[in-house]
Amino acid sequence: MYRYDEFDHDFVNARVAEFSDQVERRLAGEITEDQFRPLRLMNGVYLQLHAYMLRVAIPYGTLNSKQLRMLGHIARKYDKGYGHFTTRQNIQYNWPALSDIPAVLADLASVEMHAIQTSGNCIRNVTADHFAGAAADEVADPRPYAEILRQWSSVHPEFSYLPRKFKIAVTGAERDRAAIQVHDIGLHLKKNATGELGFAVYVGGGQGRTPMIAKKINDFLPEEHLLSYTTAIMRVYNLHGRRDNKYKARIKILVHETGTEEFARQVEAEWAELKNSELKLPEADIRAIEAYFAPPALVARPEGDEAVRLARLDSKSFAEWLDQNVVTHRNPDYAAVTISLKGIGEAPGDASDSQMEAVADITEKYAFDELRVTHEQNLVLPHVARADLKAVYDALVEIELATANSGLISDIIACPGLDYCALANARSISVAQNISNRFASLERQRDIGELKLKISGCINACGHHHVGHIGILGVEKKGAELYQVTLGGSGDENTSVGEIIGRGFGPDEITDAIETVVETYLRFRTDKSEKFLDAYRRLGAAPFKEALYGNEAKAA
Amino acid sequence: MKVLTANRLIDGEAIWYSAGQAWSETIVGAEIAADKAAEEKLEAIGKAAFAGNFALDIELIDVQLVDGAIIPVRLRERIRAAGPTNRTDLGKQARSTTAAIA
After folding, report:
1. What's a Pfam family in this record (chain B) (predicted)?
2. Roughly what angle, to the nearest 10 degrees, separates helices A510-524 and A542-549?
3. Domain residue limits at A384
4. Domain extents for chain B?
5. Does any domain span residue A150?
6. Which pTM value belongs to this model?
7. Neighbour-count burial of A103, counting CB atoms closer than 10 A to its CB (0-12 exposed, 13-18 middle, 19+ buried)
8. CB-CB neighbors (< 8 A) of B11 in chain A
9. Across the interface, do B85 and A29 touch by the CB < 8 Å criterion?
10. A148-179: pLDDT as tens digits
């Protein structure tokens, strides 16, 4: 993985010193809240319902054991013993005191981490496929390009005060696990007919109050033009993006209002001026960054097949975990493991300090010291020898992180919602917990099959409800929580935005409503091989409306 | 009727202005404004706390009295006064001085 050079260390340490001074001056009353607020936001510090919240960047979701141990240490020393992994592959602490944050940032800097650009109208943490470097279907590792974008965009003077926040995601496989079509820029790393690397470039996707699927404006951008072309997009957006209305300021609105063709033309015109400038990436520079992401030396471990076969016979729960949470690696002796942070009835994405430390130990011992955070709020060990899978499983059982539900209905994405968030209108976590408990039976979940359920506590859609196969949006109506259900959303290579199915449900009704939707699917699916999303796309909304609203649906 | 609430600058802790003429970490015993004049008095106290760099996100919130206890009208404020509903071991509800039930 990427290691800081001298410049990186100096830059992050200088920022820690600068922000420490700003906090000190704020606490001494030398600067006002109006002056301080933009400064704290640039360093990831929000004020939420109960306390401050610190959002720490995890570039493209990649961590080593030392870093994860530090995240656990921070949770214990400065917070309340846990952290919350987010849909942007970051981690949030919910309870830090402002006066402690400089010390937290210094601790983070000691393990090459920071909270810079995790808020504000700038280019945020660049996200990537969580199986990058391990996936069998990958053309190339997308993370070197995410790192190049990170370096280029960090405190970029031209793009630090954009009309609105800006999110970039990169995938290196045909199967999109990074939801690139619901990002401001989505990059699909691919090879052309002559074997050269480049990107299909998507622009103007996003969720929030106006969900939009990104438009492809370039079929194949050679890799050397990554920064020149991205700069061209940013310039068009920075110049023409609306600044008069916060709700119309994202690039998706600009692309929509300008028209894809005209927007692409403007980008091309801008790019013509830039493509042969210093932004053109020298081949040697790309390969140098790529070298940081060289895969670990995976020695042959052919004994894995027999070890797994025997362990599978010996333990039903191990076999279930293997089937659900372990995926194929490009090296047949190895596998990628999803560590579910969705224990039945637990808050999605939360991990305790001791769990983080134990996972760090497992990462160091069995996974070449590499760990990923997924946008689905789980962790991934990308490289585990199949021969070690049982040992990893046993270690995860010890810390209650061996729930075999990856991709199933209880693997729910949920934002913090009204239990923590100052923007939320309704709770998300409790809805997730109730649904998880209702579908607790793994046998039942496996019978239902792949089903992505996503919950947001407000229209900002941090819980990605628009692209949930089943989406739940919490709103406030007449002072009470109300939950709208959307069906048919998807955040993969066939991205779709879910459709609102009808009137909302109260907190006491929503779990039953979800069960009705699931039972309707089970009733109408052709057979078990037809997944929920496929069945919905075939059937349309009608049978689900009928099941949920009965005669009411017919009358409407 | 309304009470005055804010978050404390140094640590972000949710606080309420209490009838004992100080800021408190619990809504129990908060000073209740029952008329416009009392609301204006609380508003002035809030502005002074903001200007004095003691507190931020200052707000007058609607409450009602239920069996003598001050209960905020909005769920958001009930959760602020108690803590996350999924973690009763955290927030005000985890302390000996109990707060409003969310």
Report:
1. DUF2849
2. 140
3. 304-398
4. 2-94
5. yes
6. 0.96
7. middle
8. 51-52, 97-99
9. no
10. 999 999 999 999 999 999 999 999 999 999 99
